[in-house]
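User: Here's a chain of 171 residues. Predict its fold as tokens.
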Amino acid sequence: MKMTRKGFTLIELMIVVAIIGILAAIAIPKFADLINKSKEGATKGGLSSIRSSLQVYYGDNEGKFPTSDDANDATHTKSLYCLVQNSKYLSALPVAKVPGTGVTDSADVVAEIVDAAAEPDNAGGWFYYDDSTNNVTWGNVVVNVTKEDIKNAYLTTTSEPGHVYTAWSTF
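Assistant: Prediction complete.
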């Protein structure tokens, strides 16, 4: 009588497990990087929506960006909060997620600068230039972080002496 073999040998199973392990070792870091890229993309999208609502505000108010005088709500003294009052321009300020920088995710307007020479300070959140006397920077909003983005892009510009713009602030 002839014996037929059913199933896999131990060595075949070990080879399959080793191949799966190698594939997992390659794939897991890629997936972790995708999560950070999606957070960065959400922040850049949020930055775009704030800038768009600022432009609509500018058009509605005859060439005037929001200033700290426009935010008369006692709980929201920063000028960008006038964009979310009554949900006219934004329903809420988006969260600035800056993965890999050690900065806490925040939707706060951390800095509202009336001095054009001021720079972001890594506090997270948003950084708004509220200097109506400087037409170059007035109304600009950037992510309040000085570290590189996921691609380690670090850009400088000479358009504003003293300013160092990171890839976070150039979008």
